[in-house]
Amino acid sequence: MAKNIIVGQSGGPTSVINSSLAGVFKIAKELGADKIYGMRNGIEGLLNEQYIDMTDYIKNDMDVEILKRTPSAFLGSCRFKLPTVEKSPETYDKIIAILRKMDIQHFFYIGGNDSMDTIKQLSTYAKDKNITDITFMGVPKTIDNDLAVTDHTPGYGSAAKYIGATLKEIIRDALVQPINIVTIVEIMGRNAGWLAAAAALAKGDDCEGVDLIYLPELAFDIDKFLTKIEEISKTKKQIVVAVSEGIKDANGTYICEAAAQGELMVDSFGHKALSGTATALSRLVANKFGCKTRPIEFSTIQRCASHIGSLTDVNEAFLIGGQAVKAAFDGETGKVGIYNRISNKPYLMNTSIYDVNAIANVEKTVPKEWIINDGTYLSQEAIDYMKPLIQGEALPYMVDGLPRHIKL
Amino acid sequence: MAKNIIVGQSGGPTSVINSSLAGVFKIAKELGADKIYGMRNGIEGLLNEQYIDMTDYIKNDMDVEILKRTPSAFLGSCRFKLPTVEKSPETYDKIIAILRKMDIQHFFYIGGNDSMDTIKQLSTYAKDKNITDITFMGVPKTIDNDLAVTDHTPGYGSAAKYIGATLKEIIRDALVQPINIVTIVEIMGRNAGWLAAAAALAKGDDCEGVDLIYLPELAFDIDKFLTKIEEISKTKKQIVVAVSEGIKDANGTYICEAAAQGELMVDSFGHKALSGTATALSRLVANKFGCKTRPIEFSTIQRCASHIGSLTDVNEAFLIGGQAVKAAFDGETGKVGIYNRISNKPYLMNTSIYDVNAIANVEKTVPKEWIINDGTYLSQEAIDYMKPLIQGEALPYMVDGLPRHIKL
């Protein structure tokens, strides 16, 4: 009997979502899959019957290795959230019809919270309709590290490594001039501060580290922040601060918005123009202390900097893709691959699968007890948790001076 | 006779200014220098007699190698421009007195335009005063690649490699969602567009490249820019633009300022608040076309990203440091180390020294004939010029998942 599979990628890019795709592809081939289809732009593309035969593009093991080292989503992504079955049963009928037409037995979706909801909806629908010829399996992905149950998420380790490495470089740069300067680095994370927490990794024998780290898990107090800056400036000319883009004040207002109240920025249409969080804080510091400030945003670079990918992350992402295929071929459905940490020192982990209902739409934040120094730094426990995830380098194949990628 | 030297670093950091420092240190040692002093924070520190004995910190060849791979200025930097001899002869007397007290025979200064002016002033003063016991030698440095005479500058190749590599990643990221989006990447360069020109390196078999590149060498026309975006958007959903921070309109007004005229941003004090160039252009595009836009600033990251340093650049920077020492020990003064390109294909170069008067305070910009496509892209000649400079990887020593640096 033919064993066709289809795989899609969804949500924001990471450095290793393609490594999971490579894992799905390679293990599916090894386990005897016939056709391995890839959805173009996730479920949104599938609904328009846009897909490729992956073997047309990934022709050999060299291609698999380049795919593992190519950032962003090879198949394209989407931000399409499936309507509920109650609202749009025809959407589900259509998906099942397309999958049956393609003779698909196993459906894989690589993504974050919203994507796991897609697996949840589809597997629940299949169960309710007694559809047993197609399984639905999730593969986790997000730099945000905010998925429940799994110890960490594919993509987080590489982003954390980029943040740690780049902050070490920024700190060397920031300390170079004998002047008072406050550098504020804005790191992704609207509700969970896992990425900004990685700023703590910069500190070591050969680096002073950042002075303050602010996560969205705790309310941000502008006055307390300015007081901290004033205190540190008594002993240190150059100050480096890391902040999550999503920090909010006690009322739940984003700081980039709250900071704008004092000096309302309006354009000629009268619209309030919001700057980024680092820019807003830099302006506050400059106004208060009259010193030089420098806002830096890691922007999308932090999620796609596969040129400094974590080997641990790349390999684990590959493994979890393969784990999902193995489980599906063994008959599982409505599950997600997860990482289980056995120990920190030595770092030991394994993968397994878990009920998607426990993972979809749940957001995991940084434990509050890991945030120390009056909400301005991370504990040793947090560092011990992060450290193993950035180990090893998944260096790109460099061709003519630049990383080699693969694209459709 | 004792042969003591002193070396300083000045101006903005680069990925390889420490590689030149390592070259000065290592070759001076090999040529029999006794004491090798390092000025703390350049000439500004020297005037306060702040210096170190470099052998206290660089103890072996492993330290030399780590120094070569450490970004920013190991000795600290300054932005201090020497007053002219006419204005402040006592400054010059003081410097000579300090150098004589330290029994210095050779003075080296690693830096850009302003730093070469320091060498010019000091060597001219020494000549005029018939001071023959101290030589003054410049070592070029600047990511901006805007120094005259030399084929290129140490630091440019690594910054160009970072820009090419990161843009490849940003392009993969930018193309992932099936939506209309204009990504605008701001690259350093106030008057010379060499760094933004490196955006052209991203294009290749495996990358679509950026769609438009704007350099400060040509006047920027906002209306023409918007028309270009409109044209490209007819065939392409996702557009990526690279701009020099220093682009100006036909009146010489910086675009970040000119763009603000239409929608004047004022703070509560009535100050006009200027955003960055990418942010200003993003706002213009969003207002005009109603599409999603994403401004990205490479910021200081581009000048200190030694984790993806060019091996060619690191090695050449080391070489030019050594060249300066050799020349000084041979009795030269008032000169600067320069690169001479013998050919592009194969890339062949050598180093020599040149009269500092021809280099100090002169700014070299991108040849206008290299800027093609109605001022929106770079010619093959430009790419052939840049390509050799990004070859090879000077990978950092990775320790516990992060690059190892050396610091005072």
CATH architecture call of the largest domain in chain A = 3-Layer(aba) Sandwich
Q: Tally the structural domains of chain A.
A: 2
What proportion strand of chain A? 15-25%
Assembly type of the chains comes to: homodimer
Total helices of chain A: the number is 13
**Straight-line distance between termini of chain A:** 29 Å
Q: What is the SS-derived class of chain A?
A: alpha/beta
Helix content of chain A: 25-40%
Could you describe the largest sheet of chain A, including whether it forms a barrel?
7 strands, mixed
CATH fold-level assignment of the largest domain in chain A = Rossmann fold
What is the β-strand count of chain A? 17
Q: What best-fitting shape of chain A do the alpha-carbon axes yield?
A: elongated
CATH top level assignment of the largest domain in chain A: Alpha Beta
Greatest interface: A-B, 71 and 71 residues
Protein topology:
Two copies of one chain form a homodimer.
Chain A: E1 4-9, H1 17-30, E2 36-39, H2 42-46, E3 51-53, H3 61-68, H4 89-101, E4 104-111, H5 113-128, E5 135-140, H6 156-174, E6 181-187, H7 194-197, E7 212-214, H8 222-233, E8 238-244, H9 255-262, H10 277-289, E9 292-297, H11 301-304, E10 309-310, H12 311-329, E11 335-343, E12 348-355, E13 371-372, E14 377-378, H13 380-386, E15 393-394, E16 398-399, E17 402-403
Parallel strand pairs in A: 1-2, 1-4, 4-5, 5-11, 6-8, 6-9, 7-8
Antiparallel strand pairs in A: 2-3, 10-15, 11-12, 13-14, 16-17
Helix pairs in contact in A: 1-3, 1-12, 9-10
